[in-house]
Description:
Layout: E1 3-7, E2 12-14, E3 16-19, E4 30-33, E5 40-47, E6 51-60, E7 69-73, E8 76-82, E9 94-102, E10 105-113, E11 121-128
Antiparallel strand pairs: 1-11, 2-5, 3-4, 4-11, 5-10, 6-9, 6-11, 7-8, 7-10
Amino acid sequence: DDFTDYQAETATISQGVVESNHAGYTGSGFVNYDNVTGSYVEFSVSAAAAGAQSLTFRYANGTTTDRPMAITVNGVTVATGHSFPGTGAWTTWNEISVNAPLNAGANAVRATATTADGGPNLDRLRVSGPGDTEKPTS
Ligand code: GCU
């Protein structure tokens, strides 16, 4: 394999809580973002070499309203308000991916809610390199 998973429940959380009341998450739980603009989860991602990587966020949104989030890497905006649309149920987890350049060594990958609804429930971040041949679907 050529990916590394980072669980949201062990990341840095600002305005959110770790919960485990909706099945289907990986690890020991997920982050329930507070329903406010600016709530975020920040992952510390280690890269062996500088270059573009795929950042895949696994999430659930049991509402029918989009929960867009800004994605930044080391403070640089990668996506201003990436869509995290409804998944149909809080127990249905989908993935969205963005590509972003990482530095060699530690990188701060942050997903920040851009609306007053806050973010979706966030399970994990999967980081995969350009040589990855596995589909990040589970
Ligand atoms: C419900 C759900 C939570 C979710 C919240 C929300 O309370 O149980 O898991 O985070 O809605 O709308 O953000």
